[in-house]
Amino acid sequence: MVLCALILVSHVMGATADTRNVHGLNFFADKIEPADNSHVILTLFGSTVILKEESVDARIVREYFKRADIREKFSSEDIESFVSKALSAGDIVSASKGLELLLGDKERDERTQVGLLSEIEGEKGGIELFKSLLSGYSASSSISLRNIYILEVLTGKSDFSWIKANVPVLHAKSLKEFEEVLADLFVSDLKEERRDSARSIITFSRRLLGASNKTVTDLKYIFDQSQIVAQSSKKGDVEKILPLFEVSKRDPLMRRALGGYLYEQLHVAARAVLDNGQPEKTIKILSHIQDSAEWTPSTFSLVLESLQKLSIEKRGVLLDPEVSHFLALLSERDQGLYRYLIKLLEGHIKYLARSNEGVSQAEDFFELFSTINKKGLADSDNIKFALALAYLDNDKSLRAREMIQQMQSGPGIFGHLRLLFSGYYVNIYALIFLILIPIVIFIPAILRVRSILFEADQRAAQRGFAGGNEQILSQAKSILDVSSGMHPRRIEYQELLSIFELDDSAKEKEIKAAYRAQIKKVHPDIRSEDDVKNSEEFIKITSAYERIIELRKLLKLKS
Fold first, then answer.
1. How far is CA 359 from the centre of its chain?
2. Among 168, 125, 170, 164, residue whose Cα is nearest residue 147
3. CA gap 98, 390 in Å, rounded
4. How far apart are CA 392 and CA 399, in angstroms?
5. Whole-structure pTM over 0.70, yes or no?
6. For residue 15, is pLDDT > 50?
7. Cβ–Cβ contacts within 10 Å for residue 392, how many?
């Protein structure tokens, strides 16, 4: 039984497909059997053929790539790897079959196709592979005519005579499409910095189409200008770069070929100018990049660095319409730049407002500030107030009033005082204010004197004392004099001295001695008969002494 099973397994395994690895891909044949020393019997897709051993791989590849179901067996990446390995092995036939399949794939975008062909172009045997495809091209080929044109251009750059001899009329079938291919490949080379390849495309197209062909002249002009731009940007010379922006707006080919490159070189030129100490010119250069799609991190960093280095004398560049619009757009995209720009404008407006000659320019900067601050994230009231004061200094009270009315929170009490002394209000109000100040300060003393006079008049009337008013007036004057014995502080001083049995002529040493004598009698650490009473006396005597010392300073009594 075991022997029968082994025979059956051996038969089944013999009937399974044979695998043939060709350049990294596993191809399955129905059967591969040796016929003699140099031939093999190959059964593939139901057909049997006798081949030389070295021809088996080529036959398998050719038959596989003819079949539509190849896509179900291998991915595009597998086939790309197969083409590369076949090319390295010098197997042009197999490589051309794989490449033909890739170029005939409708699902692959053109950019991917061009990238693949550009890689193969640089490999050994790549041009021979292209020639193989071009030689076998027919109207029934799965390769599109556009891809054939691409192959023709890539081959013609290296071997023009072969193209001239073997495919002399391919491009004539659709000259416009052929010229588009030339332009596309040229643009791709410029963007990828393959300048030698771009130059060879110009040479090929001139030899094939003639030097007077418009596409040829356009490509040569664009190539020459790109070289000029590269040289100028390193020196910071933008005079030869900026005109090309206008040309590119009108010329689609120029825009495709140099659009991004011009913006890149403009940044290079801006950096060179900034390093040369010209921040105002740097901002002016960058302001030509009004399209936000072309902004890079370098755009924001260069503008911020330029603003930080911009001197007061050079800040007028910010008022240029193109520059101000550029900064407004730029600040919306970067909060750091927005905050610095707001702070810069705020300080500069106040600086100009303090100068009588700079008020009109301060107004222009305030308009720029308002444009950038349209979201209202910064407080503009302090700037408006500074401008209002500047208007008052320049006898523009009406303009100052309009500016103050625009303030959201109003000037505030100190603001009103500044406006008062700046002449904003009518002078009679200032006079009234100055009169009220001493009245408010001395009103307590006036009320005190008035009360004393009233009481004195009443006492004099009761006693029938004639001329009492004159005596009372004299008494009121004495009260106001601190050296007088009738001054309230003097009276308080005398009353406190009586606690120590002294009069107001006592010196400070005498007062201190009397205090020490009194305090010993009631100090809690010395006496303890009646702690509560002694504590109260101790506090009373100490408070009296401290008040006496304070009053002596207020009354300016000498020691």
1. 31
2. 170
3. 81
4. 8
5. no
6. no
7. 20
